[in-house]
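Late entry, adenosine-5'-diphosphate complex.
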Amino acid sequence: MAEEPSSSGRLFLITGPSGVGKGTLVTALLERHPEIWLSISATTRSPRSGEVEGTSYFFLNRADFDAKVSQGGLLEWAEFAGNCYGTPREPVEAQLQAGRPVLLEIELEGARQVRRSFPSGFQIFIKPPSFEELERRIRGRGTDSEEAIVRRLERARVELQAESEFDAVIVNGDLTVALQQLEQLMGLG
Ligand code: ADP
Ligand code: 5GP
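Prediction complete; structure with ligand written out below:
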């Protein structure tokens, strides 16, 4: 586990069930606030159409991912719906040291690990207006196989029970409202 840095950089973390709109919110946030540094995760998942190596994710095979884990190169990692995901440690620590706001967009188990290593970080849970709307969004996105959708929805039921662990909760109903709430919580006005 990482030592908490003494720098002025603040660590923000967003989590929430797959399909709730985390990626959409983060993209909109970064367009308006380019000073925020978004961590790019490593994953063993295959790229979706349009995803770019080093921008969307660092796409690794399982052996390379496991090597990163055993070298201590990941700040946290977790398995999600059959694939591994993790946050490269060094760039996060460097950006925090440089005083930049750092944003992680990761799932629940990883959020719990980060809570232990960065207790002063601010963790936000994004939830859907309803489970039916979550299912509509994940299907409407059209990027996942039926098997992946089923696994993600099963996991969503577990994740949605964890909202009370978080510093703040945003319901992503109207995207503009949710974005405003996110900006407010992050002190971006
Ligand atoms: P996540 O990153 O949480 O898995 P995405 O950002 O990929 O979710 O969003 C899933 C789908 O829901 C996308 O098709 C996206 O356009 C749509 N979506 C996101 N936010 C909203 C919203 N507030 N209202 C309606 N649809 C939304
Ligand atoms: P997706 O396959 O839809 O891109 O991501 C699946 C889930 O993995 C999402 O909930 C996303 O937030 C999470 N995720 C992405 N990167 C990381 C990471 O570095 N660590 C962890 N623990 N979860 C991640």
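The radius of gyration is 16 Å. Will revisit in the morning.
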